[in-house]
Design brief:
Layout lengths: L5 E2 L4 E5 L2 E4 L4 E3 L7 E3 L13 E4 L1 H8 L6 E4 L6 E3 L2 E7 L7 E6 L4 E5 L20 E5 L12 H17 L5 E4 L4 H11 L4 E3 L1 H12 L8 E2 L9 E5 L15 E5 L16 E4 L9 H8 L3 E5 L3 H7 L7 E4 L9
Parallel strand pairs: 4-5, 5-6, 6-7, 11-12, 12-19, 13-16, 13-17, 14-15, 14-16, 17-18, 19-20
Antiparallel strand pairs: 1-2, 2-3, 3-4, 8-9, 9-10, 10-11
């Protein structure tokens, strides 16, 4: 595995194809194949089983178990300070779903906040995002930087609700295809609170129950395959891997995309009637406010669109740099 070491304010960051290594330590960030110890930021980050020992919240561990991914985990609660070698670390709610977290690190000389997926807007289903001031801030860039006409998340949710209400009022049963760990629960709550009958796929049903066990009020819903005669909205998970295609029930299909530039595919035989951009994480333009809140001396952006984000955020007073292996250039 090729690596490229980056000198930062008191930190040696080594970006690889498998996460970021904190130089001269056993600690990695969102790595899946390291023999050392890796911080796992959310359940949606891990797509396959891993033998690595991870730092994660209890909620993340339980969510992954739904898909038979059993973690060798050092379970750390939010806002609990833990010492590992030369570091003191703390997990902060990222707002991007149940158990999703950012990692705050301190060594003898400096502080670092690794926040690859943040959601500053209140979703009503999980802990609100928390930030801490840090010398170095690492952000994620996993979707293209949005154009200026990118719709607001709030308006997209309102548009989706009105669309579903119209279809159900006509006696139809629309199908929503979306991310299963956070967006599905948020939309389930949105529809249920508006009195729209909701049916969910089995995996989403089990995920909902874990949310509820931690105090989230998602509202009434029914598990798929349990007969219901009334018009309703069915929520099913997006395709996680090419070899796994969730059977889409009858009805008009509506897709929930992370980005208008990255449309999901549900069923090539039945194209989506309409698409809505409701991201699990924050709008890239909200990152400017996040940077101002953290007040770092430097910002690094990781992910396939790191170079584009670094360019878009270059007008800030704080230096913003892309962080990726030197042999693996980012997109755009």
């Amino acid at each position: 595995m090729q690596e490229h070491e980056t000198e930062t304010v008191g930190w040696d960051l080594v970006p690889t194809e498998d996460g970021i290594r904190i130089g001269d330590s056993i600690l990695w960030l969102d790595a899946q194949n390291t023999p050392d110890l890796s911080f796992l930021s959310s359940a949606s980050t891990l797509k396959n089983r891993t033998a690595s020992k991870v730092i994660a919240t209890e909620e993340t561990s339980r969510l992954l178990a739904i898909n038979n991914i059993r973690l060798n985990a050092l379970v750390v609660a939010y806002n609990q300070t833990v010492s590992i070698g030369q570091f003191k670390l703390e997990l902060l709610p990222s707002g991007a779903g149940l158990g999703a977290a950012s990692l705050y690190l301190e060594n003898r000389h400096s502080s670092l906040l690794y926040a690859p997926r943040l959601q500053p807007q209140k979703t009503g289903i999980s802990r609100t995002m928390q930030l801490k001031r840090a010398d170095t801030l690492i952000l994620g860039a996993y979707t293209p930087y949005p154009p200026s006409h990118h719709p607001s998340r709030k308006k997209e949710k309102e548009r989706l609700l009105h669309t579903m209400q119209d279809y159900v009022a006509r006696g139809e049963c629309p199908v929503i295809v979306c991310e299963p760990y956070a967006i599905a629960q948020e939309l389930c709550k949105l529809l249920a609170e508006a009195g729209v009958p909701v049916v969910v796929a089995g995996s989403i049903y089990r995920t909902n129950k874990i949310y509820e066990s931690y105090g989230s009020d998602i509202g009434p819903y029914t598990m798929q395959h349990r007969a219901t005669d009334v018009p309703h909205v069915t929520i099913v998970p997006e395709m996680q891997e090419k070899r796994h295609i969730y059977p889409i029930p009858p009805g008009p299909i509506f897709m929930i995309d992370e980005s208008s530039h990255q449309p999901l595919q549900a069923d090539i035989r039945r194209p989506a009637v309409e698409r809505f951009v409701i991201s699990q994480t924050c709008d890239a333009r909200e990152l400017k406010t996040i940077i101002q809140t953290v007040e770092p001396r430097e910002v690094f952006v990781t992910g396939p669109y790191a170079k584009q984000y670094a360019s878009e955020l270059s007008s800030l007073k704080t230096p913003v740099m892309a962080l990726f292996p030197s042999h693996l250039p980012t997109l755009f």
